[in-house]
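Need residues for this backbone.
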């Protein structure tokens, strides 16, 4: 069953909700033809059988998922310790990168990701 994005965001901690709404809007803007993965328990957008991007709420803070790990590698210095795992970016004030900087980086990452997807150079993950 596909996750209901509005319900998912409404159930998140109030402090995370504006950020989650912003991430959702930016992902939809970058990939307007993407649909929600019907098997994911948090919002993950897919296109042509590839996971593209998603977001989640966690106790430690909101998470942005860029499913193009090689692209995130290019941002390693700018993301610092806010990157966790191959595809995750933590929105957490206790990390090295201020939240306002992250909010500017995500649209840049998504724009580059959309370009890479369009020209076939992205390192996207296939679900499951």
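Answer:
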């Amino acid at each position: 069953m596909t996750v209901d994005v509005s319900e998912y965001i409404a159930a998140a901690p109030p402090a995370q909700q504006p950020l989650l709404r912003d991430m959702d809007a930016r992902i939809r803007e970058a990939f307007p033809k993407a649909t929600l993965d019907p098997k994911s328990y948090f919002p993950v957008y897919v296109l042509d059988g590839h996971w593209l991007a998603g977001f989640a709420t966690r106790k430690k803070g909101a998470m942005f998922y860029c499913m193009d790990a090689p692209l995130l590698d290019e941002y390693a210095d700018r993301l610092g310790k806010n990157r966790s795992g191959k595809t995750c970016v933590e929105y957490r004030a206790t990390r090295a990168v201020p939240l306002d900087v992250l909010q500017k980086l995500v649209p840049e990452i998504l724009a580059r990701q959309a370009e890479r997807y369009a020209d076939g150079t992205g390192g996207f993950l296939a679900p499951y």
